[in-house]
Design goal:
By secondary structure, this protein is an alpha/beta fold. The protein contains 14 helices and 17 strands. The two termini are 29 Å apart.
Length: 415
Amino acid sequence: MNIPTPVVFENARILDGTSAEGEHDRFVRVEGGRIAEVSDRPIAAAGARRVDLKGRTLMPGLIDCHVHVVATTADLGRNSRLPDALVAFGAADIMRGMLRRGFTTVRDLGGATQALVDALAQGLIGGPRLVICGKALSQTGGHSDLRGRYDNRPADDLADRLGSLGRLCDGLESVRQAARDELRKGARFIKIMANGGVASPTDPIHVLQFSRAEIEAIVEEARNAHTYVAAHLYTDEAIARAVACGVHSVEHANLIEAPTAALMKEKGAVACPTLVTYEMLAAEGASLGLPPDSVAKIDDVRIRSPRSLEILKEAGVPMAYGSDLLGPMHRHQSEEFVIRGRVLPAIDVIRSATVEAAALLGMSGEIGCVSVGAVADLIVVDGDPLADLSLLTGQGRHIPVIMQAGAFAKDEAFA
């Protein structure tokens, strides 16, 4: 195993969301894959490589808490029928792109398997650290049921295909078995589809999915495994119902109202909005193969999305960064920064992809911060993201250095 050479970053402006303005003129020593020292004075380290940042911004590697790395096409029904090998190579390409944008950790919300986690860990492919839920759980006719009105194939026909984002289960025994099975296969948390969706053909946005008893049973199985349930949710009614049943991570939350946001705060729930995907689906979805039934549903959730951010902030609900993009639209992953920045203070947006995201992953102090003992996932940004969040976009154009666990994934350091 190659041990990365120690590195000292000098004259850095540290920005990780732990302070409103960041800290200037800092020195950071990286050794053994971790941050070994942070100082306001020069650091003596014999044999270390020294990188003078000259006031550039040093940030933690970015964290995206809602991705689908196996979604190689916008048509998820077609994606689920592709050969596993094509999906695996496509996922590898998607993840390489994520790392080039500065995302060193991502949370997959349906589809990715332990084999992809292991391929990354073994260095067979390059990409961000991958935290998975396995296949998302959906009721028959729910958001992971991609069969159309005339498709009568068995419900489990595609469940084991790599390109399938979810699996179907109905009834208390079935949902418990499915949750236990995903945990057995390596899931770090459980994802459920508890509301209608855009990409699925037969469920309008407003429909509730899974019974309360089914949701509570899945939550119990997750808690027994010392983890949590994340849920696909749009409407205020569905969010309130799911949070009351014990769901911890509310994905999307586009149509939330203030009383439900207050309930989330009371219950300690976290939101993971994903505004960029609706903007890109509206602009590109049809041309990329999104079925007409899905295209017709986009504005049902897109138009109200910015107001959801205001409501969640007013209630004090933590928000993690999410993109939720499909196929070629993954290239827009970083645009979520700019979209949120039209509504929220820049520091809040940065926190969503650093400290708040790390907390949702149960990895506070490990990632999402520039602190002694943390994993050395770091990026260098030319300029000040607090003044211009678009510096985090552009496929990493303004990010000359990307470090993952102490090793350079991108090294365009300056003289």
